[in-house]
């Protein structure tokens, strides 16, 4: 049965092959994007910004080379924003490890992993393109290899035609 009670938290919900993406807007900015399980049903956009975000998510889902251009709320610590900027530079079809990003921002892989998990705008800031040195790694503060979030990461990497995932 599809969930509707929690959908009031979101300004729009886009159904996907792996579940759904909830979009929250506030003050004419995208405030948050969340991966949701398939139990959530789609929800039409409630405002112009959530409509724009939903359309861009749909464009990405049909074309992994699509480049997002959304007004995002300024969130996160200076360190998190530095990590997110480094992640945003990873091109489609490529992955870097937590260690690679750590070297770029002069930090430690675990701190990079924490910043990845704190990402408010998945897809827009493609933290799915960051993997562990020895494999896929976790995703959105989840590291169960068979769990929903890691499944989303696998789907996104396959969508972007990253070999081996």
From TrEMBL:
Domain Methylated-DNA-[protein]-cysteine S-methyltransferase DNA binding positions: 78-162
Alphabetized UniProt keyword annotations: DNA damage, Methyltransferase, Transferase
Origin superkingdom: Bacteria
Pfam families, A to Z: DNA_binding_1
A molecular-function term among this protein's GO annotations: methylated-DNA-[protein]-cysteine S-methyltransferase activity
InterPro entries reported in the protein's UniProt record: MethylDNA_cys_MeTrfase_DNA-bd, MethylDNA_cys_MeTrfase_DNAb, MGMT_N_sf, WH-like_DNA-bd_sf
SUPFAM superfamilies: Methylated DNA-protein cysteine methyltransferase domain, Methylated DNA-protein cysteine methyltransferase, C-terminal domain
GO process annotations (BP): DNA repair; methylation
Protein name: Methylated-DNA-[protein]-cysteine S-methyltransferase
């Amino acid at each position: 049965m599809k969930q509707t009670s929690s959908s009031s938290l979101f300004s729009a919900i886009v159904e996907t092959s792996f579940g759904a993406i909830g979009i929250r807007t506030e003050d004419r900015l995208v405030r948050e994007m969340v991966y949701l399980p398939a139990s959530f049903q789609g929800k039409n956009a409630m405002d112009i910004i959530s409509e724009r975000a939903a359309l861009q998510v749909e464009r990405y889902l049909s074309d992994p080379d699509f480049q997002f251009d959304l007004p995002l709320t300024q969130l996160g610590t200076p360190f998190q924003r530095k990590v997110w900027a480094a992640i945003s530079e990873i091109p489609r079809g490529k992955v870097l490890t937590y260690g690679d990003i750590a070297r770029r921002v002069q930090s430690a892989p675990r701190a990079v992993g924490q910043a990845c998990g704190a990402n408010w705008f998945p897809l827009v800031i493609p933290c799915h393109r960051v993997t562990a040195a020895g494999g896929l790694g976790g995703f959105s503060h989840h590291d169960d290899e068979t769990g929903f979030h890691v499944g989303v990461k696998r789907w996104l990497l396959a969508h972007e035609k990253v070999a081996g995932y």
